[in-house]
User: Fold this.
Amino acid sequence: MHVPFRIATMTGLALSVVAVATVPAQRGATSPRPSGAQADVTARITSSAQALLTKLDDAGRAKVQFPFEGPQKTRWSNLPSPMFERQGLRMGDLTAAQRAAVMELLAVALSRDGYRKVTEIMQGDEVLRKQSSQGPRGGGADPNPGRAGAGARGGGRGGPAFGEDQYYLAFLGTPSATTPWMLQFGGHHLAINLTLAGSQATMAPSLPAAQPATFTVEGRTVRPLGNENDKAFALINALNTEQRGQAILSSRVADLVVGPGHDGKTIQPEGIRASALSAAHQTMLWELVREWVGIINDGFAEPRMAEIRAKLADTYFAWSGPTSNGSAAYFRVQGPTLVIEYAPQQGSVDHIHTIYRDPTNDYGATFTK
Amino acid sequence: MTLQLVLMSGSWTSAHRRDEYLQAARLAIDPDRVELELDLTPGIAVADVVLSEIDVDSDGMISVAEARAYSDRVLNAIALDVDGIPLRVELVESRFPPVDSVRNGQGTARIHAAASMPRLADGLHHLRYRNAYRSDIGVYLANALVPGSDRVIVAAQRRDLYQRDLVIDYQLSGQPAPTTRRGLSVGVAGALILIANLWWRTRTRQREDL
Assistant:
C-alpha cells in the first residue's frame, strides 16, 4: 500500500527538482558567486586608475575618458595605428611618471603572467619598429603591413606606426569600485577590454597577438604567446588517433573566425568534446584555456576558470594544420561561455593572432545592464 | 526587405594579408530562411586588382551603384542549395570601406545576403554553400552560426580543404515548446503529483484512524 505512495512522492520530487534545476541553469546561474575578494580587486584597480588620473592634466583626463556606452567600447583592433584610428591616451604622449602610472595600473588589473604577456607583446612591436626602421628584413613575417614604402616609425604618409609608444589607454565610464566601467588598453596586436562592476569583471573580448612571435631582448629569448603554442601542441599530440580524428578539422582555417568586428556572432562548435578526453587531457585543455583567462587579475581568473570547467560537456577543442610543434596550426577552444582562437597568419609561425571571447558576456553584458 | 548600401568611414578588419583575398562566410539557418554574411578583405598585393573591379570608374570612391554591382557580382559566384534545391540568394545590405583602407590591405567589405527556404519536412537536411569568386587569389572561411531558432540543430559541417565548399547537415523539427516552458511544465506536473499524493495519504490515514 505504501509503495505506490513512495513512487508517487519520489516521482513528484524528481520532476520538481528537474524543473527547479532547469530554469536557473537556463539563466546561466551556474556561475560561481562573486566574493568580497573580487570586490577588493576592483577597488584596487579603481584606486590605481584614480591615481593615474591625478597625474594627468585636464587635457589628458579628457583624452582618456569616454562614456561607458558609446562607439569606443567596440573600437579596438589588432591593426597598427594609424591604419586603425585609436582614441585615448597615447603612451608616447605621456611623461615618464604618467607612463609608469599606466604600467602600474596594468600590473594591478592583470595577473603577473598577464602583465608579462602584455609587456612582451609591446616589446615585440618595439622590435618590429626597429626592424622596420632598418629596412626590409629576412624571414616570413611582414614588418610593414601597410603600403609599400610607408614610413614605419611615425606612421607618416598613412603607414603603420609600430613600437611601445603606440599603445593607447581609455576609461569608459568613471573608474569606480561599485558601478560599471571599462579599462581599454591596446595597440598593434593587442586589445585588452576589461569591464568591471563591483565584484564582477570580464576581459572578454580581448586580443593578444604577436609579431614577431619569437625575439631576443638582452640575450633572452622572448615568446609572448609561446605557452599558448606549446600547450596546444602538447595537447593535440597527447590524444590518441581516434581523438585526434575528432579534433582535427578537414579544412584549412586561414584566419580568426570571430576576430575584431564580430561581436555577437556565435559559430557552431566543432572538434572533440572535452568530455571525451581523459582527466589528464582535460587538465591540459584547462591549462591551455588559462593562458587567456589568466591574463586578468587572479581574483577574477579563478572563478572564471571554474565557470568554464563546469561546462565541460559542451566545450570543444578543434585543430587545423600540422601537429608537429614549430608548424603553423590553427586551434579553437569553444564552450557555451568561451571562444578562444589561435590563428597563424598566412602560414607564418612568427605572426600570430588570437582572440578570447565570452559569447554570453562580452563587455560584461550580463552584469552591466 | 529594404536593400541598404553603406559606405563606411572606418574599418574593423583584423587582416594582415598580402597576396590573398580573404572571403569569410557565416551562414545562419532558420526554418524558412538562410542568412549569409560575407566579409571580403583583399591583401595589399592584390588590393589594386580587386579595387579595379569595385571602383570601376577609378575615381577613388566606391559609389552606391558600384557597391551594389560588385556585391551582385560576388553573389553570382556563390551557390546555395538545400537538399539539392537551388536557393535564390538576394542582397540585403553591403558595407564598403574607403578605397584607401582597401589599398592598404586593411579594408573589409561586408555583404549581407539572404535566401528563402522551400517548405521542408521535419528531419535531416543539407545546406550547401559554394563560393567560386576569385579562386585565383581567394582564401576562404565558411562557418555555420549557432541557429537562432530552436527548431534547427546543426548536426555537422563538412568542408573541402580550402573552405570554398561547405555542407551544413542540420535537423529541422516541428515547433517545440521552449525549454523554459518545458521545464516549468515538468515542474507543475511534479507538484501536482506531490499534492495528489499528500491528499491521498491524508485521506487514507483519516480512514485508517476511523
The two ends of chain B are 75 Å apart (CA to CA). The CA atoms of residues 80 and 129 of chain B lie 5 Å apart. Chain B touches chain A through 57 residues (CB under 8 Å).
